[in-house]
Amino acid sequence: MAKTIQAIRGMNDCSPTESPLWQWVEEKVRTVLAGYGYSEVRMPIVEATPLFARAIGEVTDVVSKEMYTFWDNDEQLTLRPEGTAGCVRAAIEHGWIYNNEQRLWYLGPMFRHERPQKGRYRQFHQAGVEIFGIPNPEIDAELILLTARLWQALGIDQHVSLQLNSIGSPQARANYRSALVEFLTKHTALMSEEEKERLVKNPLRILDTKNQALQAVLNDAPKLLDYLDDESRTHFQQLCELLDGMGIGYEINPKLVRGLDYYNKTVFEWVTDALGAQGTVCGGGRYDGLVEQLGGHATQGVGFAMGLERLVLLVQEVNKNIVLPNAVDIYLVYAGEGTTLAAFRLAEKLRTALPHLRIMTHCSGGNFKKQFKRADKLAAKFALVLGESEVAAQNVVLKDLRGGGEQQTVAQSALIEYLSEKFY
Question: What is the pLDDT of residues 231-240, one digit of tens each?
């Protein structure tokens, strides 16, 4: 027997029993985004490597350690590790944002070579939103309101909380960076080798360290909010006033900086502790300089991304009231001479007239007992039964599989109207 081949570590299958919950979560995402008038875009999963190096930053962990990069003839390509860079590239390339506002969203797989753990994998899935051409804090507030509405739709709103910060302009951040490095240099004895490397390359990332000794020291570190430029401070104040007015609770977290270089002004994260250690469910912020950095006209940008694996886990953990649709509404069983063709014709007639119903034809042979056992295993609501006598009389037996097994005979000519009433 040949040796079996298994999935790559950190790249997981989604089973038939798991996919209905994924579909339910994804449909909630699509419905909420449609309710705000956002438009879907679809980008390739492979991009030119320099796109991510320029957009995300060469010294970030994502670019320096986690990307899946390979050569295709003389071109270096990368499996996308996040969605913003590719969306900006597409918007510039196709002229979507030239003198034009856009509110876009996408959903699909991303790839990072990191240690797999619960809710974090090497192939993972994100839903993301990118908005272009709107500088006002109103759109920052709308993004947060949108996500708050989504948490309500998913039944997890009592288990997530909002953290908020402003990281200001690039110049303000540079001034703060100098002050932070000066402070941290006095505490290198507490740092791991990786943290010492970050101190040189990307010191703001030390603010979200998991090193408890260093965390205690950071309580006395300079605060980014004290270094904000006037424009960023006003923008942040107006955003907070809007959120207060809309009743959205939040915590200002001065250590929140996000991990990618393109952010400026507003940054935010929705976090939860319902999955154990506190984890981020959704994160985003402003990136007003990114479009110009990637070769486009100066255009403001803001957006967020949420990991669907962690979102699905959270929904499973805290929302016990989900009613997922059955895989099958009606299971059509048949046996006897002349019943196969009759069953196929009836099934197709029903699918044409009642496209919202999930109708499965047995197809596997065997007696009625075996077929009913299969219908029950699929949790079908009803079985339609065709035997030789039913075919001859142009009738069908309808059996309620979830309501005590009651059954009745219905003329095939009246079946569509009858089922319409049953399923509404």
Answer: 999 999 999 9
Residues whose CB is less than 8 angstroms from the CB of residue 103 and which lie 6 or more positions away in sequence, other chains included: 36, 37, 38, 39, 129, 131
Least confident segment among 5-14, 190-199, 235-244, 331-340: 190-199
Buried b (16+ CB within 10 A) or exposed e, 142-161: bbbebbbbbbeebbbeebbb
Q: What are phi and psi of 26, to 5 degrees?
A: -60, -40
- Tokens 């923008």 — which residue? 235
Tell me the HSE value of 313 on the side-chain side, using a 13 A CA sphere: 20
Residues 6+ apart with CB under 8 A from 94: none
Cβ-count burial of 364 within 10 angstroms (0-12 exposed, 13-18 middle, 19+ buried)? exposed
DSSP notation for 87-151: HHHHHHHTTTTTT--EEEEEEEEEE--S--BTTB-SEEEEEEEEEES--SHHHHHHHHHHHHHHH
pTM for the structure as a whole: 0.89
Q: What is the C-alpha separation between 240 and 238, in angstroms, rounded? A: 5
pLDDT band (50, 70, 90) for residue 278: low
In whole angstroms, how far apart are CA 47 and each of 52, 87, 299? 8, 11, 22
Q: Is the pLDDT of residue 222 over 90?
A: no
Going from the C-alpha of 272 to that of each of 161, 162, 279, 405, 417, the distances in angstroms are: 7, 9, 6, 44, 48
Beta bridge partners of 159: none
CB of 350 closer than 8 Å to CB of 343:
no
Q: What percent of the chain has pLDDT over 70?
A: 99
Closest CA to 367 of 335, 409, 341, 412: 335
Tokens describing residue 371: 């077929």
φ/ψ of 163, rounded to 5, equals -110, 140
- For 174-221, the DSSP string reads HHHHHHHHHHHGGGGGG--HHHHHHHHH-GGGGGG---HHHHHHHTTS
The confidence band for 158, taking pLDDT boundaries of 50, 70 and 90, is: very high
* Contact by Cβ (8 Å): 236, 230: no
Show the CA angle centred on residue 357, arms to residues 41 and 389, nearest 5°.
150
**Looking up tokens 């991303």, which residue turns up?**
110
| Largest distance between two CA atoms of the chain | 92
Mean pLDDT of 109-125: 88
How far is 33 from 422, CA to CA, in rounded Å? 32
User: Of 308, 288, 309, which Cα lies nearest the Cα of 299?
Assistant: 288
